[in-house]
Amino acid sequence: MSRIGKKPIEIPKGVTVDLKQGSISVKGPKGALSREIPPNVEVKVEGSQINVVRLGDDRKHGAFQGLARALLANMVVGVNQGFEKKLLIEGVGYRVALQGKKLVFNLGYSHPVEFDLPSGIEAQVGEKGLQFSISGADKDLVGQTAAKIRGFRPPEPYKGKGIRYVDEHIRRKAGKAGVK
Questions:
Q1: First vs last Cα of the chain: how many Å apart?
Q2: Can you list the domains of the chain with their CATH numbers?
Q3: Which among 57, 72, 101, 116 is most buried, taking Cβ atoms within 10 Å?
């Protein structure tokens, strides 16, 4: 049985939920999101709560109930507060700059790496260009964008150079042991 799927989702003030056949759309101060409802579940909006009810007792139905509830909760939080991922660049000469809706990275390659931000995603760069954040209303898109940016130069285990999340710990390896 899905314990998460049974919990109701509270709708905060300033957020509106529209339920149409097979899809749900949520609007709030940070934007609007819409998504198709997974199969084998039914979504009910009752007052200031959203309830997800499964249509059968099969194990799959419980899994879809938990999935649907988590996705809807992320939509409500996203349009109300938004999501943010903070990243850090380590390395001599490694920098990032924001030019309009484009991030330009200097990561030790022979050319700068340019990344166009998807619609609905905003970026903020720190003073020295070593720390930046990706934010938006869609949790999936924020995480996917941050992962794609991290993939330009993942952190390496010897010196720790590269792009990493602020709360990420890189396990360091010892270098070559010199023969004496």
A1: 62
A2: 3-80 (3.90.930.12), 83-165 (3.90.930.12)
A3: 72
Question: What would the two tokens of residue 164 be?
Answer: 């990493």
pTM: 0.88
How confident is the model over 41-48, as a mean pLDDT? Answer: 90
**d(C-alpha 12, C-alpha 7), whole Å:** 16
Q: Are 89 and 168 in contact (CB under 8 A)?
A: no
**Phi and psi angles of residue 13, each rounded to the nearest 5 degrees, phi first:** -65, 145
Give the phi and the psi of residue 12 in degrees, each rounded to 5: -75, 165
* DSSP of 75-97: HHHHHHT-EEEEEEEESTT-EEE
157 confidence band (pLDDT: 50, 70, 90)? very high
Q: How many CB atoms are located within 10 Å of the residue 83 CB?
A: 19
**Residue 86, class by beta-carbon neighbours within 10 Å (0-12 exposed, 13-18 middle, 19+ buried)?**
middle
CA atoms within 13 A on the CB side of 127: 0
